[in-house]
């Protein structure tokens, strides 16, 4: 294997340890030029390099850098400071570093540059920029990007596990005798806190790593070629809209009502949150937010923001929506139309400074909301506290307030969507195609149709790569944890095609049937809670067609192993195409949360299927390269280096108002749609 | 017979299994298989031989039948242990009992080895310390500093990451001390943060922990609690902490602490400790600005109390003070008189099991700590433990500690101000007069004291578990001062040799507005600096006394101690001197910081008649060198006068100002404390 590529892979491991320590379970070290050592170790380079090369199998040479980069721009973000993608000054630093990495002329120089930079900048900043670069440089396409939960496991896992891991490793020599450590579930609050019922969702490792990887794929700032992706603003809207729909449905499953959008920033926030996780960067616990905290203006060295600024931006964005156009910085009106409107709005609200049509005027609503909330405990830095979990994309989704804030952001987008014309028959229908039968059924032989199953499962994650300054020779320091799981199932649809052979796009959603008061949901409410389950193209032969589709093939989810993938070589597929599958796969909803939890007594949903006319859906890709093998979760993450593979607006057909009052009337009116009632039963036991 | 010193090794690496190697001379306990926890018993050969390679000393552990440890084990290993929580106290008391009642040191060692991996590590440290301090056969043991067993309670958690890196990457010989940042808990925007060096001082917090080790307020063996004048000492030690704290506030242009006398009002001072507990793997929870107390309902602590309960206890105590008596459990009146009143009140307020009526007067001081420490999560909704003020080794870090104790002190003063003032005759020592007082450091201007910053190193490796062995040093920055000497000229007009008790105090001259203080206020800021006996020959006498000899402090080395270096030979007289009581104000904090331009103070010296003060008892080898705040182990408090005498009561009529208060056996001198903002280095 090319040693440069191997080197790039290893630089993801042990993010806090100096670059000269061993990696790959103690098997590999870098042969470093003197200049790479930081001042701290410059005087005894020989001692440390000898010390760490005693029992290694491989030494990877790293070239001398042609020109030492000037890293002063990154010095503002100290080594032990928390790095946030929501803070402007941090984003600017990241953007410069990514540019620096992208500019490295060749692979060897990139390796040398990365090795040189690693110990000289903030470790999370490094990992972020490094991963973004690996994902975007043509010559690093085959380097696997490990799941973030394995690089910084402490951001995902209850902290006593690490103490236990050190204990196991230092007391018991043989890996065989080690017992798997158990990561406690439900440790952040007790059941006196109603919000705690959702902890399995908010604190899920797969959910939080998806969020990080999504932001890796869609950085909000950086070089234009990295930021400016097809329909990124729209995807920002849609991915978060789906998170909200899923979260609200999950709340119904737990007898809670929908989350209340945080539309009044002057109100006390009743939801307190005590994360308890410990950042490995500074060995500090993420600050908590007590119940009934008021937001306050933030005035800190790395930025200040007033609540009234957010309110002004909000009002301007809403005014633009109500007027139907935004104004760019030259004062030119850009209509918020059916096709591009949502994308423009997405970039305005997420405030990609690169892509917003008028950053100055519409501001930085989404990010600064995160910032203000994340500093509520110490808005003027008088207590020298860093931000809470809301300030960090790897941890933000743990906090109940994340959903209240995104509930508000989503309500802004929905306001725009509601002003667009109702979808008409031409847009919705597909003449001559009728869906005559719909079912979803578990794999078991005697399974009843349309009854799906969820339960708890135990899985293990390997902590070794992120256990800095811990035992080196250990490939296995595993921890087991409990998460929700669903039994795999198969959709079967019968479709009659009255015309010639043609292509359709099959769109599958599930929707809750009743609201928190057990009242039937109107279609207008239901459409906002429709959960996308899958989307794929189908070839329709004339006459009867039977379409089968496995739940594990879903276009929103990535397989279980990708959320909890082990990085050790043993786990790596050898064949080239298999290796490719491993790349860039962190983005995607975790398969184990594909279904909402349901209820022990069963909870009813509508399973909705629509086959739309592919001639209206298809996208002419600019290049003919085969799809990236890892881009299986394109509904949420798009396709790597390609256009979003569906010409319809995201969420179609539920993203706009529909001509009918209820879902039944809706499917009744269009033959290319069908629905059936399904039941999701939750079995409260732990498997595995 | 087991070497008692081996018991001390059990304090090291508190969260590692007991069979792991310990000590500078690599030592392991040969733990009987049946003593291993279930986790390690099946693989005992492997684990015990793994550590066995470099062993220099093996300590046999006798297998005895183990007393019932169910109660001590009922507190989880990863829970936070607090002396202020009654349930925890009861559990700890049971473990102390077990340790104290073992028949021999051998048996104690066996039980301690057995218990160590099964009970809460902090409670283990506490109970074993109390037992070693109180068992006759383990006296004279040099207990390791609590800060070395649990450095996580004294040090920014961020430092641990660096320590881990240092011990992982660098060999023991070339390791560099990790510098603990000076201001890490808050910034200058927070005025309270100016006091960080006092509140977060290692020695100050250790003193508080050790004081509570020496004076437990609950134990099933009453004699452990029932020490001479413990209630009064509770009052006095904390009164002195307040006097010192307020003087530090004047040194930082802040007003005196506002007593927290309205439990319904928000606590303006927030505090973010930025420390992590190694035991629970949780951060010490912060308290946000403007947090209010709430009624507590925390099942697993067995606490269900309202703020109104505290208010009722307080009102009843005030009522007792104003009536001049308390009511015991049988309904009998117990007078709060001049001699015993303050001691009874101390036991009531703290409260200890010596309280004459805990049902009626409750547990005010302790529960004040508990209520404040749980204000962020009153009903355990968020599964958060108590904040720093809920633990005696960390409580003094929190500004709220001082607000609470300012209030506790106000209640004590309510009693003190009702006692008759000391008369001329009581105060005077006829025939003895002070003719001159001066303080000076080597080569500096007389009557000017100098403070500055110093850096000292401390080895934290003993409390740094599951990491490569070898010293890892942390470098603390702390206040200190130039040592100085008092020179006191005393005239004895009589014809015979007489004895005097020299009492030295200091207080600021002016209040926060720069106005001269009335004695009734100034007396509350009188900081005791020293108290010692002198013999006075007929005619003029010159007394010289060094600041390092102070009766309130323990020497620098005992705070930043290195157990192995500088240890006197076993059995020597010096070793007895070295014997650690741990309790004592750190000498580097003897003098308040002062101001760059000088903080103007009155230094007060009194020579009282030792015949009226003396307690006849043998003091040699009883670690009596910080007796003023800590008493003397197993002995009576070595001064018959009320603690704080002569400033513990209101001054007599006519003595509005300190200068009018003076009788011939007293004298004052103007002293200025100057702070130089420089850092000196010192290796411990």
CATH class of the largest domain in chain A: Mainly Beta
Oligomer: heterodimer
- Specify the CATH architecture of the largest domain in chain A: Sandwich
Strand content of chain A: 15-25%
Q: Helix tally of chain A?
A: 24
Return the structural class of chain B.
Answer: alpha+beta
Query: Share of helix among residues of chain B?
Result: 25-40%
CATH topology of the largest domain in chain A: Immunoglobulin-like
What does the main sheet of chain B amount to?
Answer: 7 strands, mixed
Q: Could you say which overall geometry of chain B the principal axes of the C-alpha atoms support?
A: globular
- Rough outline of chain A: globular
Calculate the mean pLDDT score of chain B and round it.
Answer: 89
Cα end-to-end separation of chain B = 34 Å
Measured by residues with Cβ under 8 Å of the partner chain's Cβ, the largest interface is:
A-B, 56 and 57 residues
- Tally the helices of chain B: what do you get? 24
The fraction of residues in strands of chain B falls at 15-25%
CATH fold annotation of the largest domain in chain B: Immunoglobulin-like
Let me know the number of strands of chain A: 20
The CATH class of the largest domain in chain B turns out to be Mainly Beta
InterPro entries (chain A): Di-copper_centre_dom_sf (IPR008922), Hemocyanin/hexamerin (IPR013788), Hemocyanin/hexamerin_mid_dom (IPR000896), Hemocyanin_C (IPR005203), Hemocyanin_C_sf (IPR037020), Hemocyanin_N (IPR005204), Hemocyanin_N_sf (IPR036697), Ig_E-set (IPR014756)
Protein name (chain A): Phenoloxidase 2
Keywords (chain A): Copper, Disulfide bond, Metal-binding, Monooxygenase, Oxidoreductase, Secreted
GO molecular function (chain A): catechol oxidase activity; metal ion binding; tyrosinase activity
């Amino acid at each position: 294997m090319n040693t440069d590529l191997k080197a790039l892979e290893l630089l993801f491991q042990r993010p806090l340890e100096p670059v000269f320590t061993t990696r790959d379970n103690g098997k590999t070290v870098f042969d470093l030029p003197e200049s790479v050592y930081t001042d701290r170790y410059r005087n005894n380079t020989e001692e440390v390099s000898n010390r760490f090369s005693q029992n290694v199998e491989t030494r990877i040479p790293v070239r001398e850098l042609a020109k030492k980069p000037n890293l002063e721009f990154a010095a503002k973000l100290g080594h032990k400071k928390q790095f946030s993608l929501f803070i402007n000054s941090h984003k600017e630093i990241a953007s410069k570093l990514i540019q620096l990495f992208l500019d490295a002329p060749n692979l060897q120089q990139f390796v040398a540059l990365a090795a040189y930079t690693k110990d000289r900048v903030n470790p999370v900043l490094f990992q972020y920029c490094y991963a973004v670069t690996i994902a975007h440089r043509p010559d690093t396409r085959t380097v696997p990007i490990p799941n973030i939960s394995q690089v910084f496991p402490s951001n995902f896992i209850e902290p006593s596990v690490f103490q236990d891991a050190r204990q196991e490793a230092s007391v018991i020599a043989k890996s065989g005798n080690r017992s798997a450590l158990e990561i406690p579930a439900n440790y952040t609050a007790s059941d006196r806190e109603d919000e705690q019922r959702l902890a399995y969702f908010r604190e899920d490792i797969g959910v939080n790593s998806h969020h990080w990887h999504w932001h890796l794929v869609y950085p909000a700032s950086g070089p234009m070629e990295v930021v400016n992706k097809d329909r990124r603003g729209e995807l920002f809207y849609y991915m978060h809209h789906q998170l909200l729909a899923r979260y609200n449905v999950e709340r119904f499953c737990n007898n809670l009502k929908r989350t209340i959008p945080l539309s009044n920033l002057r109100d006390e926030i009743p939801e307190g949150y005590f994360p308890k996780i410990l950042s490995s960067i500074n060995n500090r616990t993420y600050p908590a937010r007590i119940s009934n905290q008021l937001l306050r203006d933030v005035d800190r060295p790395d930025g200040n923001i007033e609540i009234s600024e957010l309110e002004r931006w909000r009002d301007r964005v809403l005014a633009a929506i109500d007027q139907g156009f935004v104004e760019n910085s030259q004062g030119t009106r850009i209509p918020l139309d059916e096709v591009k409107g949502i994308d423009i709005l997405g970039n305005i609200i997420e405030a990609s400074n690169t892509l917003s049509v008028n950053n100055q005027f519409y501001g930085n609503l989404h990010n600064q909301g995160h910032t203000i909330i994340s500093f509520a405990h110490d808005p003027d830095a008088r207590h020298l506290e860093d931000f809470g979990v809301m300030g960090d994309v790897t941890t933000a989704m743990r906090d109940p307030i994340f959903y209240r804030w995104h509930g508000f952001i989503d309500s802004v987008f929905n306001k725009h969507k509601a002003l667009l014309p109702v979808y008409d028959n031409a847009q919705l229908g597909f003449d001559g195609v009728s869906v005559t039968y719909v079912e979803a059924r578990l794999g078991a032989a005697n399974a009843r149709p349309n009854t799906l199953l969820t339960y708890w499962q135990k899985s293990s994650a390997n902590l070794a790569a992120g256990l800095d300054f811990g035992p080196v020779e250990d490939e296995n320091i595993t921890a087991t944890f409990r998460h929700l799981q669903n039994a795999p199932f198969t959709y079967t649809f019968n479709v009659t095609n009255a015309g010639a052979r043609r292509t359709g796009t099959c769109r599958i959603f599930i929707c809750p049937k009743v609201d928190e008061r057990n009242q039937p949901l109107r279609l207008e409410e239901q459409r906002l809670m429709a959960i996308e389950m899958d989307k794929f193209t189908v070839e329709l032969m004339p006459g009867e067609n039977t379409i089968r589709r496995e739940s594990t093939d879903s276009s929103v989810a990535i397989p279980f192993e990708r959320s909890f993938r082990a990085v050790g070589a043993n786990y790596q597929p050898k064949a080239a195409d298999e290796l490719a599958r491993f790349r860039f796969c962190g983005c995607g909803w975790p398969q184990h949360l594909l279904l909402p939890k349901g209820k022990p007594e069963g909870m009813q949903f509508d399973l909705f299927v629509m086959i739309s006319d592919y001639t209206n859906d298809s996208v002419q890709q600019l290049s003919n390269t085969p799809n990236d093998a890892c881009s299986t979760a394109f509904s949420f993450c798009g396709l790597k280096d390609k256009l979003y593979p569906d010409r319809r607006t995201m969420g179609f057909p539920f993203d706009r108002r529909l001509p009918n009052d209820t879902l039944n009337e809706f499917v009744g009116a269009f033959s290319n749609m069908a629905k059936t009632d399904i039941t999701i039963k939750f079995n409260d036991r732990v498997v595995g | 017979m087991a070497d008692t010193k081996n018991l001390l090794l059990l304090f090291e690496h508190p969260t590692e299994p007991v069979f792991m190697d310990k000590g500078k001379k690599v030592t392991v306990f040969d733990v009987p298989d049946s003593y291993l926890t279930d986790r390690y018993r099946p693989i005992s050969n492997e684990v015990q031989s793994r550590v066995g390679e470099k062993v220099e000393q093996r300590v046999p552990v006798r297998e005895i039948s183990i007393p019932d440890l169910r109660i001590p084990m009922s507190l989880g290993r990863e829970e936070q242990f607090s002396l202020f929580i009654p349930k925890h106290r009861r559990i700890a008391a049971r473990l102390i009992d077990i340790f104290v009642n073992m028949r021999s040191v051998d048996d104690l060692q066996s039980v301690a080895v057995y218990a160590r991996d099964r009970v809460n590590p902090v409670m283990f440290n506490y109970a074993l310390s109390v037992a070693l301090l109180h068992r006759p056969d383990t006296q004279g043991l040099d207990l390791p500093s609590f800060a070395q067993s649990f450095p996580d309670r004294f040090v920014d958690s961020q430092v641990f990451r660096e320590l881990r890196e240092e011990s992982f990457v660098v060999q023991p010989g070339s390791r560099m001390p990790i510098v603990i940042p000076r201001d890490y808990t808050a910034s200058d925007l927070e005025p309270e943060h100016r006091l960080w060096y006092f509140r977060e001082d290692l020695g100050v917090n250790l003193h508080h922990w050790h004081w509570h080790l020496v004076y437990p307020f609950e134990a099933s063996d009453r004699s452990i609690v029932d020490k001479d004048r413990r209630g009064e000492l509770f009052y006095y030690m904390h009164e002195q902490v307040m006097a010192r704290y307020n003087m530090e506030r004047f040194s930082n242009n802040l007003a005196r602490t506002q007593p927290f006398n309205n439990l319904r009002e928000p606590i303006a001072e927030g505090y973010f400790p930025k420390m992590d507990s190694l035991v629970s793997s949780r951060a010490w929870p912060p308290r946000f600005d403007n947090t209010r107390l709430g009624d507590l309902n925390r099942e697993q602590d067995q606490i269900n109390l309202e703020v109104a309960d505290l208010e009722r206890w307080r009102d009843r105590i005030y009522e007792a003070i104003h009536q001049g008596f308390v009511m015991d459990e049988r309904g009998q009146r117990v007078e709060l008189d001049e001699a015993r009143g303050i001691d009874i009140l101390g036991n009531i307020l703290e409260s200890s099991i010596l309280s004459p009526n805990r049902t009626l007067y409750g547990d005010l001081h302790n529960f004040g700590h508990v209520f404040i420490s749980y204000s962020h999560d009153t009903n355990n909704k968020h599964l958060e433990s108590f904040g720093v003020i809920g633990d005696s080794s960390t409580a003094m870090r929190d500004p709220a500690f001082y607000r609470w104790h300012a209030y506790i002190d106000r209640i004590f003063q309510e009693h003190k101000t009702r006692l008759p003032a000391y008369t001329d005759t009581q105060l005077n020592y006829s025939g003895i007069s002070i003719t001159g007082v001066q303080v000076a450091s080597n080569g500096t201007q007389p009557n000017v004291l100098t403070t500055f910053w110093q850096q000292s190193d401390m080895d934290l490796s003993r409390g740094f578990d599951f990491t490569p062995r070898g010293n890892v040093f942390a470098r603390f920055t702390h206040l200190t001062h130039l040592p100085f000497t008092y020179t006191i000229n005393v005239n004895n007009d009589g014809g015979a040799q007489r004895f005097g008790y020299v009492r030295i105090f200091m207080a600021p001259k002016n209040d926060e507005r720069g106005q001269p203080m009335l004695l009734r206020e100034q007396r509350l800021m009188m900081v005791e600096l020293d108290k010692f006996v002198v013999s006075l020959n007929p005619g003029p006498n010159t007394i010289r006394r060094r600041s390092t000899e102070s009766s309130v402090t323990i020497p620098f080395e005992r705070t930043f101690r290195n157990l192995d270096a500088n240890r006197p030979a076993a059995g020597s007289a010096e070793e007895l001197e070295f014997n650690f009581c741990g309790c004592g104000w750190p000498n580097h904090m003897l003098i308040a910081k002062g101001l760059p331009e000088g903080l103007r103070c009155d230094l007060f010296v009194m020579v009282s008649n030792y015949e009226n003060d003396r307690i006849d008892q043998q003091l040699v080898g009883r670690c009596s060198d910080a007796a003023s705040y800590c008493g003397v182990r197993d002995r009576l408090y070595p001064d018959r006068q009320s603690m704080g005498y002569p400033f513990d009561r209101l001054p007599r009529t006519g003595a509005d100002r300190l200068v009018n208060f003076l009788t011939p056996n007293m004298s004052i001198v103007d002293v200025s404390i100057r702070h130089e903002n420089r850092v000196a280095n010192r290796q411990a």
